[in-house]
Amino acid sequence: MSKVAIVTGAARGIGAATAQRLAQDGFAVAVLDLKADDCADTVSAIESAGGKALAVGADVSDAEQVQAAVDRIAAELGPPVVLVNNAGVTRDNLLFKMSDADWDVVMNVHLRGSFLMTRAAQKHMIEAKWGRIVNLSSTSALGNRGQANYATAKAGLQGFTKTLAIELGKFGVTANSIAPGFIQTEMTKATAERIGEEWESYVAKRAAAIPVARAGIPEDIAHTVSFFVSEGAGFISGQVVYVAGGPRN
Ligand code: NAP
């Protein structure tokens, strides 16, 4: 069986750490992000550690680009059997100030993007009679002030995951969700900036509210992805694991 994984939004942050971890685990990794050039750092980190990677530019919310990307990955790396739907955006605002565009872009990237990527990739997993799908949810799925759009999308991904688990299980394909808490990335740096807080003090404040007394790092999530993708996790499907340093966000 080909050992090929796709990680979306892998130019930086959680996606970059996940791509590197899956490469260490022996997968050839399609490092997918909006612009192929932005994937260069992740690809060279994988290659300099002795792994194999391919930079792929695609907007996950565009059906044609998604199909072309998955076709190219299958042709150049081999049929993908692992898909990590990680690409994400935030457009935070209180409900009464949230624009139609802020709602639509968040739904399109997280929900439509995960749907399109999964629909295109599952064919290869079913042919291989083995596959692993991991969707990035969030503790925000439980509700978060200023994130009506994002919380809705992240809760939606949990329903999507459970349905994939039910439909694809008999083909040897599992689907699970990871719901990270506070992870230090460009996404959370942008949040600190938006609310006018200095990054170091923002991290310290968030860490103080986390039971394990530290903020999360991308490698915490990459480790959980690696577990779900592993051979031994084949009887775990349709689950959501909160990776948040404690029982809640
Ligand atoms: P990040 O640093 O902002 O990285 C997200 C990546 O996704 C960026 O490289 C971005 O590209 C890419 N992307 C955005 N729209 C895309 C599209 N339409 N097609 C392809 N790629 C696209 O975010 P992160 O913090 O690593 O988060 C990764 C995932 O974890 C997201 O789904 C996020 O919602 C979730 N999550 C994060 C946290 C956290 O605390 N950081 C917590 C819970 C869940 P551009 O730079 O070009 O926009």
Structure overview:
- By secondary structure, this protein is α/β, with parallel strands linked by helices.
- The chain folds into 2 domains: 4-181 and 218-242, NAD(P)-binding Rossmann-like Domain (Rossmann fold), CATH 3.40.50.720; 182-215, no CATH class.
- It has 8 helices and 7 strands, in the order βαβαβαβαβαβαααβ.
- It has helices at 13-24, 40-48, 63-76, 100-128, 148-168, 186-194, 199-208, 218-229, and strands at residues 4-8, 28-33, 53-57, 82-85, 131-136, 173-180, 240-243.
- Strands 3-2-1-4-5-6-7 form a 7-stranded parallel β-sheet, sandwiched between helices.
- The chain is globular and about 50 Å long.
- The chain starts with a strand and ends in a 6-residue tail after the last strand.
- The mean pLDDT is 97.
- Bound molecules: NADP nicotinamide-adenine-dinucleotide phosphate.
- NADP nicotinamide-adenine-dinucleotide phosphate (NAP) binds at residues 8-9, 11-15, 33-34, 38, 59-61, 86-89, 109, 113, 136, 138, 180, 182-183, 185-188.
- GO terms for molecular function: oxidoreductase activity.
- This is 3-oxoacyl-[acyl-carrier protein] reductase.
- InterPro entries: KR_dom (IPR057326), NAD(P)-bd_dom_sf (IPR036291), Sc_DH/Rdtase_CS (IPR020904), SDR (IPR050259), SDR_fam (IPR002347).
- Residues 3-181 form the Ketoreductase domain.
Would you kindly provide a brief summary of this structure?
This protein is of the alpha/beta class and 249 residues long. The protein contains eight helices and seven strands; from the N terminus they run E-H-E-H-E-H-E-H-E-H-E-H-H-H-E. It has two domains: 203 residues, NAD(P)-binding Rossmann-like Domain (Rossmann fold, 3-Layer(aba) Sandwich), CATH 3.40.50.720; 34 residues, no CATH class.
